[in-house]
Design the sequence.
């Protein structure tokens, strides 16, 4: 599993959204209510900037830094 998915797995949001919209069906008011409930009950997730990744420069740390991870390089 990729490091980014350990911090934030977008598949969870996708699954929750699809399930809510499927249950609401074509009923627009029910869709709005389902979406509102998803927002009100959204799980707390960490931003990449809250995570420090330590390692060697050749580990690809610069790519992680571009995503917003805090980096601690070791020699």
Sequence:
């Amino acid at each position: 599993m990729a490091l980014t998915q350990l911090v934030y797995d977008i598949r969870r949001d996708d699954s929750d959204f699809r399930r809510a919209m499927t249950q609401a069906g074509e009923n627009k008011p029910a869709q709005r209510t389902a979406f509102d409930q998803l927002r009100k009950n959204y799980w707390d997730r960490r931003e990449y900037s809250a995570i420090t990744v330590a390692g060697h420069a050749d580990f690809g740390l610069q790519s992680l830094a571009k995503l917003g991870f805090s980096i601690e390089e070791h020699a």
